[in-house]
Amino acid sequence: VIRIKNHMAIPELSHVDLTPAEAANVTEVIEKTPAAVLGSRLFQPEDTIIELPHSIIGGKGHFTMMAGPCSVESEAHLRKMAKVAREGGATILRGGAYKPRTSPYSFQGLGEAGLKYLREAADENGMDVITEVMDEDHVDLIAKYTDVFQIGARNMQNFSLLKAVGKTRVPVALKRGMAGSIDDLLNASEYIAAGGNHQIMLLERGVRTFDNKYTRNTFDLAAVPVLQKLTHYPVIVDPSHAVGVWDLVTPMAHAGVASGASGMIVEIHDDPEHAFSDGPQALKPDTYKKMTKEVFEMRRLMDSWEA
Amino acid sequence: VIRIKNHMAIPELSHVDLTPAEAANVTEVIEKTPAAVLGSRLFQPEDTIIELPHSIIGGKGHFTMMAGPCSVESEAHLRKMAKVAREGGATILRGGAYKPRTSPYSFQGLGEAGLKYLREAADENGMDVITEVMDEDHVDLIAKYTDVFQIGARNMQNFSLLKAVGKTRVPVALKRGMAGSIDDLLNASEYIAAGGNHQIMLLERGVRTFDNKYTRNTFDLAAVPVLQKLTHYPVIVDPSHAVGVWDLVTPMAHAGVASGASGMIVEIHDDPEHAFSDGPQALKPDTYKKMTKEVFEMRRLMDSWEA
Amino acid sequence: VIRIKNHMAIPELSHVDLTPAEAANVTEVIEKTPAAVLGSRLFQPEDTIIELPHSIIGGKGHFTMMAGPCSVESEAHLRKMAKVAREGGATILRGGAYKPRTSPYSFQGLGEAGLKYLREAADENGMDVITEVMDEDHVDLIAKYTDVFQIGARNMQNFSLLKAVGKTRVPVALKRGMAGSIDDLLNASEYIAAGGNHQIMLLERGVRTFDNKYTRNTFDLAAVPVLQKLTHYPVIVDPSHAVGVWDLVTPMAHAGVASGASGMIVEIHDDPEHAFSDGPQALKPDTYKKMTKEVFEMRRLMDSWEA
Amino acid sequence: VIRIKNHMAIPELSHVDLTPAEAANVTEVIEKTPAAVLGSRLFQPEDTIIELPHSIIGGKGHFTMMAGPCSVESEAHLRKMAKVAREGGATILRGGAYKPRTSPYSFQGLGEAGLKYLREAADENGMDVITEVMDEDHVDLIAKYTDVFQIGARNMQNFSLLKAVGKTRVPVALKRGMAGSIDDLLNASEYIAAGGNHQIMLLERGVRTFDNKYTRNTFDLAAVPVLQKLTHYPVIVDPSHAVGVWDLVTPMAHAGVASGASGMIVEIHDDPEHAFSDGPQALKPDTYKKMTKEVFEMRRLMDSWEA
Asked: Residue B83: which residues within 8 A CB-CB, separation 6 or more?
């Protein structure tokens, strides 16, 4: 039995023995519900809005920029990047302290030191922090430093991890997996919500298709309005991982805001060739600031249509 | 040997016996050329611009709207739809007279009668015509009525058809196939160009992926800037076929113009439920006009950044 | 209205005005029929068996081997390859006289001369011929030389071509497109059948997926039993194009016969490095003969289970 | 620096400062190594063979059958199924005690009780146990009961979990993810090997593609010989999850053994309609026993070719 605001959802009612008194209180039986009831607009038509000290994510009139380097590389470098991120209008600082790398021989992140640098650089610039959690044993530690947990694409269906962050009250940004269908993503988010944590945002970051010569993934921007029809959670786009090549990031950032997303997360670096990870997709500071200026202008234009 | 403006490209030079005089005239050997040399920016850096009586496609400062019903249904209906299309800013009227339908038992189009209605309705409204050619034996007939040949996604690698339209001097809009890679699309366009027809535009209309529950295809908008880097041909987006559901067309039209495309083709219908084909993806007149107004505003905003 | 043996299928009965007399003769209304009724097991439970002078395709107790070079390269070479093909147990000689090449600058085939060489080499070895038709204008010409038309993957939904071969009475081998779903393939075959040509076989040759580093396509062998449930047409596998690398062909040929296919088509060449096309996937004569010996043994073992 | 038998691999040698003495001991620099060096045939040409009390996995002359219900449902049911599995020639009993379910509201497994039933049922029938671990915190607990850890497709790139099982000396069966490329799978296995656990087998269970109407996934059998070229680890096929429909399992089991795999894992159930999970793909006992008899016969035929 699942309580959703003033509704109570009972998956597979036929399997449940209701007492006569309970049965009398059933006012409506919705035969066809989505599996992910807590995330469904059917039960909660109004948008979920996530409020952080420096940012509001979701709802009308807000567009949230999140930016930072792929990996936290050093305290000094992160401070520099946080300043750039903030100057471009970002209110959330991203950076990986624990990195999910394809090969075990690649740089795996600075760990707790990286978390400290993130917190400090964010505080210094009046920003919130988003950082990835890969391991349920790190949940408590990372919760001490971050404002938002990021669950990476490779862990979209790591159900143990989803349950672990679902027990916290820290907002979660859940990335769509490389082969994750829309329904898979919603069901994965339901693992978090079922634990009592309803502060969820969903990230589109490209899916894996047959065409990966010129882009790392295929950016599925139609997922933005599709998800917005089905769920009340904010939808965020990640053009950096979607394309994997810096000079495609700006047009895809434009397309991303135009698709109606509630926010964007991008990777920046002042010296991409020497970045510890994902250098080829990082925007340099000037390119980043031009891009965000344009993205905010586009969002304002779109706001004018809805007014 | 391929002549490209003031260049001459010799694929696989090692296979060619040059006379000493010829060899002496080789000024540069580019070892790594793309297979599709005629379409490559390497040999022609400037944009191909296609000029029609009422439209300019490609280059800076132009955004071309193409609209109309999926199928030509009747003379009266088409005239009505052409008027709507024009009111929304379209300068090219689309409509299928020969329809590529998955099943042989579905409506196959009105044939030459449909072509006549297209021509008349376009002329009446000061518009150009785009219509699909599926059959090399129809090339001459259709050329009498249309301003642009459309080659459908299912025929992207119908090389006999590509050669046939390559022999004409009618502009060709080549749609990317459902499993067409970027390179496949460029090589397919080269079949047209190799025949001497360089008036080519490329259409992104979604590719087939694992996720087709909520959208018909996956709209690959990163293909727009990718193609623009590789080729000088204009790139057009088709949000209607990409998503297949009308209420996703507007956000994807926004995303499409934001991606930097040179134009857009959309399907409209005043009574989608009774459309002869693809009703679910057709925009009603009012939705269409709101969408195009917004798309043109977005394009103007983007133009202001480049000025 | 479609006549199938002693059935008559009326797609979308609700759209048909039957006279009272006609309505009285309707003995059964099957609400849910597949779109491709002529190919469906629902209306024809027994296997389609295609009988050629030297080969029987389909039904129990037959496994048909088809082999030959990718392209017809010369008269002498083809005679040599035909002899090898026959020694390995093939009764159908394959070879391309008209080649669908990704690039217009690649070898496009010998044309009618190639057809003559095919017919002669086949006759000399007591074999039938299969060769690709890419162009509806070639249908009559090719029909003079071949026993089976092959429709390539890129033309699976070239509906004009399908209609053209549907008007002949020459058997057709229809290849599944790179993004062709099972339903697409059945609907495409229906275009041929609707023209009155019921001598159809379906070829699985791999589909396009995200993983194409080590194989050209992904060989979808489950399509064999899936198609055998849905349709009465024989299903043939093409391991050469599925994998694109010769040393994977033998294990995939084993897997192909084990999946229950009615036959197999493979590419052979005595000097793959100098083949005009697709050399990397060609089997050398000795490898080919070892493979076919094993494939026939496997088929005999499987026959023993059904006896 | 990675030690592999008598080799030492130094990824990215240019990044390493060797002392002159060390440099003098470098006997060979292999410029192009795969990222997953420990699993590569380049450094270990001979097959990895995993020896369990009742089973040998890998190498020539062994084909290992693994069977059991999808979920452990009850002690009595499991004992019944274990007996059936053993009668069909399986020497490893499968069964899920912790289940990775798409929805949080689906049955999640019996937990430790399920593990006990598995151990007892296996011991009673002279079998080994394979069961899934989803959570690094369960590694020690499950190690007490199982002979082989299974890592599910959704956790293929759950690097924390891979590291955790890499620290044990319990053999690991790593399933390919739904969008896992061959290289991704090898790199994931390297996370286990880098921890010192070299007892690894790789499972092909189908990948996600555009065609999922008639099968759950697309069974990529070419992955078997591809992996066998690249790595020394045994490759196992899982036809049940690949197709998801019981009547396709037998032909795909035939194709699986024919592809050259070292073993197979299948799901069985005596009452599939009431199975707690994945009933539609379970084989009933008689179908299972006929299938395994045929699979072993096919394997013996193949052994005769290599003798």
From this structure: B125
A259-304 pLDDT, tens digit per residue, is 999 999 999 999 999 999 999 999 999 999 999 999 999 999 999 9
Whether D295 contacts C298, CB under 8 Å: no
Mean pLDDT across B95-112: 91
Q: Residue D59, by phi and psi: left (phi above 0), alpha (psi -120 to 50) or beta?
A: left
Question: For residue D20, what pLDDT is reported?
Answer: 74
Is the distance from CB of C8 to CB of C47 less than 8 angstroms? no
* Separation of alpha carbons B30 and B248, rounded Å: 45
- Partners of chain D (3+ Cβ pairs below 8 A): A, B, C
Q: b/e map of D34-63 (b: 16 or more CB within 10 Å)?
A: bbbbbbbebbbeebbebebebbbbbeeebb
Q: What is the pLDDT of residue B17?
A: 63
- Predicted local confidence at residue C31, as pLDDT: 60
What the block records as the tokens of C193 is 């059948």
| Token duo for residue A207 | 């899916």
The pLDDT, as a whole number, for residue C42 is 87
Least confident residue range of B10-14, C141-145, D251-255: B10-14
Amino acid at B252: M
CB A180 within 8 Å of CB A152: no
Strands (E), chain D: 2-4, 7-9, 50-51, 56-57, 64-68, 92-94, 128-132, 148-151, 172-175, 200-204, 235-237, 263-267
For residue D274, count other CB atoms closer than 10 A to its CB.
Answer: 9
Which residues of D make CB contacts under 8 Å with C?
179, 181-183, 207, 209-211, 213-215, 218-222, 224-226, 229-230, 242-243, 247-248, 251-252, 254-260, 294, 297-298, 301-302, 305
Cβ atoms of residues B80 and B266 within 8 Å: no
Relative to beta strand D200-204, strand D235-237 is parallel
Distance of CA B155 to the CA centre of its chain: 13
**CB atoms inside a 10 Å sphere around CB C41:** 15
Of B161, B179, B183, the CB nearest to C178: B179
Average pLDDT along chain D: 92
Q: How far is CA C42 from CA C8, C46, C193, C204, in A?
A: 12, 10, 15, 22
> Which structure tokens are listed for D101?
């379910």
CA distance linking residue C121 with residue C127, whole number of Å: 8
Please give the single-letter amino acid code of residue C102: T
Contact across the interface for C254 and D213, Cβ inside 8 Å: no
Query: Would you say B38 and B2 are in contact if contact means Cβ atoms under 8 Å apart?
Result: yes
Rounded CA separation C123/D236 (Å) = 45
Provide DSSP, C230-255.
HBSS-EEE-HHHHH-SHHHHHHHHHH
- What pLDDT was estimated at residue C91? 98
Mean pLDDT of A79-108: 94
Contact C283, C246 (CB under 8 A): yes
Flag whether pLDDT at A49 surpasses 90.
yes
Please answer whether residues B265 and B292 qualify as being in contact, where contact means their C-beta atoms are separated by less than 8 angstroms. no
The C-alpha atoms of residue A39 and residue C39 are separated, in whole angstroms, by 43
Per-residue pLDDT band for D21 (boundaries 50, 70, 90) equals confident
Residue type, B170: V
The answer to whether residues C239 and D287 touch, using CB atoms and an 8 Å cutoff, is no
Helix or strand holding residue A175 (H, E) = strand A172-175
How many Å is the Cα radius of gyration of chain B? 20
Whether D58 contacts D233, CB under 8 Å:
yes
Residues of D near A (Cβ–Cβ under 8 Å) read 2, 11, 35-36, 100-105, 134-137, 154-161, 163, 177-179, 183-184, 187, 190-191, 194, 207-208
Q: Could you give the domains of chain C?
A: 50-306 (3.20.20.70)
